[in-house]
Amino acid sequence: MRFLRTVGLPFCFFMSSTLALAQQAASPMAAPGTASSRIVRFAAEDWPPFISRSLPADGMSGAMVSAIFERMGYVVKYEYFPWKRAMQFGLASPRYAGFLAVWRTPEREKLCHFSVPVGNTQGVLAYLKEDGVPGATLADLGQLRIGTVAGYSNGEQFDGMVARGELKTEEGLNDATNLKKLLIKRYRVIVIERHVLQHLLMGRNFSKAERERIAVIDTVFKERPVHVCFQRDAEGAARQKRFNEAARDLDTARLERDYWKRLDQSLAAAPAHP
Predict the structure, then answer these.
(1) Residue 119 — left, alpha, or beta (φ > 0 → left; ψ -120 to 50 → alpha)?
(2) Cβ distance 63 to 57 under 8 Å?
(3) Sign of the dihedral defined by the CA atoms of residues 62, 67, 73, 75, in that order
(4) Residue ranges in the chain assigned as alpha helix (H)
(5) Which of 76, 159, 188, 272 is deepest in the core (most CB within 10 A)?
């Protein structure tokens, strides 16, 4: 199992081209001109290690999006908000071209022009070892309190079972809050992305003893890509098309592998967290 945490100087030169600074502009994609005027802005929730101000190149998805826009001659600026506000601003504000990182659902197809994948995620069910395995399938969880994050989609099967009243869920503010609630047994199980869980457990807010209490079931959810949600208008459709065309010129799968590899290498060089 790969454990991730925020890193500093050992990784500071990784993908430095995606960290270029530029003057701010009023529109989400400034008119072509000098390099410093070509800026595109996205709203995002801080969701490490995929998109985060605390990680090199703004996380794995941030690094990928920035690399693709760099081929188009743009510098990307990410501005961070709680998830629901990131969605609202990304969908409606003229300041932003959209928001990320987003799971694709039939409902969201009506709201977004989705990009090609900018990372892959794997949902898991996290539980406490001391309480035993809660079940092997979603149907086994029917009588348990399950922690989820408000505004998140957890796949068609899970979301459908919740809508039909077959699963009992309680929405929390974010993954970190849900993990703390799991540790104090407010929840019997939580739904969380695998890399996100690993990143949280290696952070300063959780101890080694707490990490050792957590186990996961990783056979319930399918792997799902995340995307950029471009605003659903003519301009957003044009941005999506240009972005997807530029992405074809990059080996995004290798970029993703390299990011995780280099992040792991920097962690190996960092002092162990107690």
Answers:
(1) left
(2) yes
(3) positive
(4) 59-71, 83-92, 156-163, 175-183, 194-201, 208-211, 234-247, 252-269
(5) 76
